[in-house]
User: What shape does this take?
Amino acid sequence: MILLILILGAVKALQISHAIAKGKAFKMPPDAVTSILVKESNESPVLQAVGSLASPQGVMLSADLPGIVESISFQSGSAATNGQLLMQLDTRQEEAQLRTARAKLDLARQNLERAQDLSTKHVIAKSAFDEVKSIYDTALASVDETQATIDRKTIRAPFSGALGIRQVNVGQYLKSGDPIVQLESLDPIYVNFALPQQHLGKLTSGQEVRVQADGLPDKVFTGTITAINSIVDTATRNIQVQATLHNPDHLLRSGMFAAVETLLLRGKR
Assistant: This one.
């Protein structure tokens, strides 16, 4: 038994010494080293925000005076030019009044011309001439007033833009202020967005922005900052910014949401 124990101890000691020798002979593998090629890039850092599109000019055209719609000269969704006739209310009564007023004006003009001739010759008193002149001025004012009423019942486009959906029909009676059609100027178009006040020093007029609107995922529109609000919102501590975009195809519409990226100038990180 003693001999067996000595043999097993010798074998174990031999195994341990062999393992220690292997451990001393082991060498760590070399560290793996990777590298990348550094290239100069022209990309600028950006500030991201969510904005809303708005027309430079937009208005719901409405009836200034009450009346019956006599004619409509536009189609829903069509384009309108500045001064284009859109709708005419019934003005038959005003046109009759205008003819009467013009007839009175013609008579008053003739009387005034005769009075001027007589006044030059000192045949009539100045008070008589002043009375004739007053009658002429009154007749002229009556013509202008009646013509103004007709013009207010003639609805024209106040600026060029895109028309919305027509709200009226021929023969319909309109009250003062009743809506007729929406008119929006779409090219160029504004995008309004807000940025935290700490970025105010990084913003300047003329800075480039990129806009991607909901519903147009494959289109990126570029524009420039044209206005920065003069005050910071005390509730949100944000500054309102407005940029102008070219929109020749009228793809962007007022009221759309859009993702806005403001490209910062180098050195303004």
In short: The two ends are 84 Å apart (CA to CA). DSSP finds three helices and 14 strands in the chain. The helical segments are 2-25, 92-120, 126-152.
